[in-house]
């Protein structure tokens, strides 16, 4: 097996991580959706309020893959992790790199008190889906009929400004909703 090193992302890795993010987005046919830049990665990954964790895979001192995740809260299970990206450059796939990156993220999430890890996969990305299933993942869409939805930045603004009266706070932390 070739020598790959897995380590925590460093501030100086932001340019390489951004390049890998763009490569992944291109592979997923979603290049236009990438709006982060190096400064955002640096601030969100290393700022006062760190928003994500990231581990990288290196080969010959070059970053060839990464896993990026964050923690969130579930009213059912408590603290859990959400894996945003798991990416290994095509030339380095099928060498166990993705498994090692993912395992590292799962170990860290467990150490951090997470009870679950969730992520999304494109339905057409059958190789990724099979990879996840081989490792014990379940497709909650198939089993629980649970679908995940998203509001884009523009949709968030449209929703907030749609003219619906959302409710008024009573000063005690309760919001009273009024129909329009």
From TrEMBL:
Domain N-acetyltransferase, residue spans: 4-161
Key word DNA-binding present: no
Transferase found in the keyword field: yes
Protein known as: Diamine N-acetyltransferase
Annotated Gene3D superfamilies: 3.40.630.30
Enzyme class name: transferase
EC number from the UniProt entry: 2.3.1.57
Molecular function terms, GO-annotated: diamine N-acetyltransferase activity
Keywords: Acyltransferase, Transferase
Organism name: Mytilus galloprovincialis
InterPro entries: Acyl_CoA_acyltransferase (IPR016181), Diverse_Substrate_AcTransf (IPR051016), GNAT_dom (IPR000182)
Family of this protein: Belongs to the acetyltransferase family.
